[in-house]
Amino acid sequence: MSDEQDVITGINAPVYLKYNFTAGAAPSRFLTQLKKGVLMGQRCPKCSAVYVPARGSCALCGVATEEDVQLSDKATVESFTIVSIPIPGNPIEPPFVVANLVLDGSNISLIHLLSECENSEVRIGQRVQGVWKPESEWDYSMNNIRYFKPIDEPDVPAEKIGKLPVTGWEG
Amino acid sequence: MKDIAIVAYQQSDSVSDAGAVNEVELIMPVLARTFEQAGLNSAQDVDFVCSGSCDYLQGAAFAFVSGVDALGAVPPIKESHVEMDAAWALYESILKIRMGHADSALIYGFGKSSPGELPVVLSQQLDPYYLAPLWVDSISLAALQARMMLDKGLITERDMAEVVSRSRRNAMNNPHAQLSGDISVDDVLAEETYLSPLRKADCSPISDGASAIIIATVEQARAWGLPYAVISGIDHCIETHNLGMRDLTDSVSTRMAANRAGMNTGKVDVAELYAPFSHQEIILARALGLDDSTQVNPSGGVLAGNLMMASGLSRVGEVFNRIVKGEAQRGIAHATSGPCLQHNLVTVLEKGENA
């Protein structure tokens, strides 16, 4: 083999594709309200479960969620994790808490950050509330809420998590 | 081996831009109508679900997973997906039933092509080393194929225009068609060329929409008391990625698939061919040996509306509709994938005994 060839381990073939992306009709309704500082869920006409953020269907029943339901920014911790390693591209310094939270008045959890708390004291059933950015910075974004922080309310027992009315938790 | 039948078929309107709806919102109304046609409530009432879609179309990663939200998949269902036209999801579902793992299946396909530049998006399905980096788009490749046909004297531009004219006129009877009208051959020929030798009318439109089918063993279809058409054969064949090694003026893989599916064991009353470009309908009809005794694309075909990842399944549905209405005894549905008819699937449908 006199004329040896280079071993080619890769070529550059960048892909650029442009899209006019749309969120969907139901997500658009949610995002429009979010920009006004309102957390809006959508109710299943069949099983009455309230979804937030809505995608337009009840995944249990496979039917469209048409009714809008205004929710509280108070929530209950359904589960959580303490992130101790840096995540590439994430500006938040570890350790920080990511939690499954169920907003009062809804039946499924959404994921957001917990802060202004002792990480070691975060627990399932803990009551928390959203800490909003100033109104002038509100956009079509879940980042309108910087994070949730603990509030002085009694814990919610496991069997009641995800079943609280929009009026909240009396304890 | 259990015979398998189609018992329901629905398609959305084919529209140039479905607007703000997401994949779930695109699929749900079609599924609701399909369940209603079959007298079923949800995906819980079938044994298997298989879908066809491609996330590149709308530029949304894992859009097909979100699509499951349209099904009512609680408690869990048996579900699968192909990153292909849903005609191949039908193929997978038939295998599932043949293996005895199911007696019924829901198959659906959806595509929202409007958010991206479809011909450019499709360039990224080409061979990644030599062709994809050149961004050769799907219309340019079809134009190369049409030019070859014309220069070899295999077709004339008038032949192509005749395909378009017939599609537009047939589509006047298709309530879901995007393009229809009483357009003459001369009207088509009067149009300027777009990507020579193709006119815009020779190319299928960019479309958004979805379609769905329910299949079941013939025993199950009878138990449900539904009119049905029997799937007597299905097969698919693929040609090489290298366009230079293919005879682009013929479709060898379509002919092979049709023979293996048993097309030639009886008369073909109707053929729904997935030809995204007018000259490709001529290639397909010739490859299959169809003559005047077969009605080709009575729905208008995909020149009247091209639901990427659903139109192959819709071809099957259109033949089903004609058989259960008594307009045809036996027919074939063709689906294609890849550039210049690279990958082809043929389904043979026949009238059921008590359909």
End-to-end distance of chain B, in Å? Answer: 20 Å
Q: What is the 3D shape of chain A?
A: globular
What is the CATH class designation of the domain at 4-117 and 206-229 in chain B? Alpha Beta
Overall pLDDT metric of chain B:
96
What CATH architecture label of the domain at 4-117 and 206-229 in chain B applies? 3-Layer(aba) Sandwich
Q: Quaternary state, please?
A: heterodimer
Helix content of chain B: 25-40%
Number of strands of chain A: 10
How much of the sequence lies in strands of chain B comes to: 15-25%
CATH topology of the domain at 4-117 and 206-229 in chain B: Peroxisomal Thiolase, Chain A, domain 1
Average pLDDT confidence of chain A is: 93
Q: In terms of per-residue confidence, which ranges of chain A show pLDDT below 50 for 5 or more consecutive residues?
A: none
Number of strands of chain B: 12
Question: Count the helices of chain A. How many?
Answer: 1
3D structure, described in words:
The complex is a heterodimer of chains A (171) and B (355). Chain A is mostly beta strands. Chain A has 2 domains: 22-70, no CATH class; 73-171, no CATH class. Chain A has 1 helix and 10 strands, in the order αββββββββββ. In chain A, strands 8-7-6-9-10 form a 5-stranded antiparallel sheet, with no helix packed on it. In chain A, strands 2-1-5 form a 3-stranded antiparallel sheet, with helices on one face. The longest helix of chain A is centred in the N-terminal third of the chain and has 11 residues, at 25-35. Chain B is an alpha/beta fold and 355 residues long. Chain B has a domain at 4-117 and 206-229: Thiolase/Chalcone synthase (Peroxisomal Thiolase, Chain A, domain 1), CATH 3.40.47. Helix content of chain B is 33%, strand content 21%. Chain B has 12 helices and 12 strands. Chain B has helices spanning 23-38, 55-58, 63-66, 86-98, 118-123, 138-151, 157-170, 185-189, 218-224, 252-261, 278-288, 311-324, and strands spanning 4-11, 48-52, 79-82, 104-112, 193-195, 198-199, 208-217, 229-238, 270-272, 295-296, 330-337, 343-351. A 10-stranded mixed sheet of chain B has the order 3-2-4-7-1-8-12-11-9-10, sandwiched between helices. In chain B, strands 5-6 form a two-stranded antiparallel ribbon. In chain B, helix 4 packs across helix 12 and helix 7 packs across helix 11. The radius of gyration of chain B is 19 Å and the shape is globular. Chain B starts with a strand and ends with a strand. The model of chain B has no long low-confidence stretch (mean pLDDT 96). The A-B interface holds A 11, 13, 15, 17-28, 55-64 and B 19-25, 28, 31-32, 42-43, 56, 58-60, 66, 68-74, 114-117, 120-121, 124, 128-129, 132-133.
